[in-house]
């Protein structure tokens, strides 16, 4: 059974702190990794789609890196703001299995003013 | 506006009473999926569909049915709901390839 693990499960930081969290996945048959941001009372929205080993993506203060050989991705938030409070999910679409995806359990980030 | 819609958004029902949650997308996506979200368990895929009349089981298909008769619609059917199906349900659509999911607004279901 494929497993996508995220750590930590939750994180509480002060406004202005920089933070990062991890998504671990099986490196065999890798072809893409997704990061989603999920705010309370809203739907998850795609942040990044990463495909290449060593890939780095950036959107404002949020960036992500990918290591497909060792099977992990980091999400970084620089200078956290209260509006960054959300659950961050990573997901692994499965190679040659059409629409099947495996989601991690998510990291719940709370940023206090 | 490109979107995925779900109805109803909230539903309280009783054990055994058949229900359908509708899902529709206007992005001409081939793929559609249903997920449930439970505390501590993240998003788990119930069923997915790669095209009209092509569906497959996800990780937690027991107690659910789906159909894909038209490209834009992917209803989720609970023939005999039970309390353990109380959950938050999301429909999503995507295109083949990178399969980035576009989620609907969610349906909160309570089965008494």
Query: Quaternary state, please?
Result: heterodimer
Compute the average pLDDT of chain B: 95
Query: Hey, roughly how much beta strand do the residues of chain B contain?
Result: over 45%
Round the Cα radius of gyration of chain A to an integer and report it.
14 Å
- What is the N-to-C succession of helices and strands of chain A? EEEEEEEEEEE
Number of helices of chain B: 0
Described by the principal axes of the CA atoms, the overall outline of chain A is globular
Helix content of chain B: under 10%
Q: Which pair of chains has the greatest number of interface residues, and how are they split between the two chains?
A: A-B, 22 and 28 residues
Low-confidence stretches of chain A: none
Measure the end-to-end span of chain A.
Answer: 41 Å
Number of helices of chain A: 0
* Structural class by helix and strand composition of chain B: mainly beta
What's the story with the biggest beta sheet of chain B?
A: 7 strands, mixed
